[in-house]
Amino acid sequence: MQEIINAVRDALSNIIMLAPIVLISITIHEWAHAYTSYKLGDYTAKTEGRLSLNPLRHIDPIGAIFFIIFRFGWAKPVPVKTMYFKNPKRDMAITAIAGPISNILLSIAIIPFLAIAAAFNAPNFVIEFLQTLMYMNISFAIFNLIPIPPLDGSRLLTFFLPTNIYMKFLQYERYAFIVFILLMFTGVFSSFMGTATNFVANLLIVPTEALANFIFNLVH
Q1: Is the peptide bond before 150 cis (omega within 30 degrees of 0)?
Q2: Angle of helix 88-119 relative to helix 152-160, nearest 10 degrees?
Q3: Residue 151 scores a pLDDT above 80
Q4: Cα–Cα 20 to 30 A to 115, which of 80, 87, 88, 191?
Q5: Banded pLDDT at 192 (limits 50, 70, 90)
Q6: Of these residues, 30, 48, 128, 173, which one is catalytic?
């Protein structure tokens, strides 16, 4: 019985920590799409209330649950009408990549806070929260760059592929997503995501540790 209680307590603690991380990560990502689209001439997202930092405007319940369980997920897609862009192919690609870039920038922005927390021996839950926030934003960025519809990576293909080839590619969208789901549940996709995310996270850990050591030596 005690083991069950401990398992439930750990699960609840995990959800309590991950919930705000999911809200922050998804909101920043979708806001970046909406803001970029707006600046490039498409007012659709603004008209529909998506140019907002209110998480409720962006959260997809199922995607959020996936985010908490699998450490990657999705949100409500930001509406984009390419007819309002001056250069539709280029501007669609810029709008698409804005989301992943925002997550990477957020991960980088966490470095000084994580360094300060480590230098001043902050409570473990603070350091764990910051580390998880960094990790999940990296994971979210990598996940969205995969060139499978409807992920952002597939939208980037509009810039690199001729229109006729891209349209043929979209015809297989449903099959591509089925293959993606199968890979996810067989563990192949999770293995790839873990390896890719750890690689990028390790690149950010180096400056974090260096900055933490600098701050520690500065104040002691």
Answers
A1: yes
A2: 140
A3: yes
A4: 191
A5: confident
A6: 30
Q: What tokens were used for 4?
A: 């069950």
Helix axes 188-219, 124-144, angle to 10 degrees: 140
Q: Which two tokens stand for residue 44?
A: 């659709």
Close Cβ partners of 140 (under 8 Å, ≥ 6 residues apart): 25, 26, 29, 67, 72, 73, 100, 103
Q: Across the strands, what pairs with 59?
A: 75
Q: How far apart are CA 63 and CA 14, in angstroms?
A: 17
Q: 28-51: per-residue pLDDT in tens? A: 999 999 999 999 999 999 999 999
At 67, the amino acid letter reads: F
Measured CA to CA, the distance from residue 213 to residue 215 in angstroms comes to 5
Q: Based on the residue annotation, tell me whether 30 is a catalytic residue of this protein.
A: yes
Task: Identify the burial level of 183 via C-beta atoms within 10 angstroms of its C-beta, where 0-12 means exposed, 13-18 middle and 19 or more buried.
Answer: middle
DSSP for residue 77? P
> Which SS3 state, helix, strand or coil, does residue 180 take?
helix
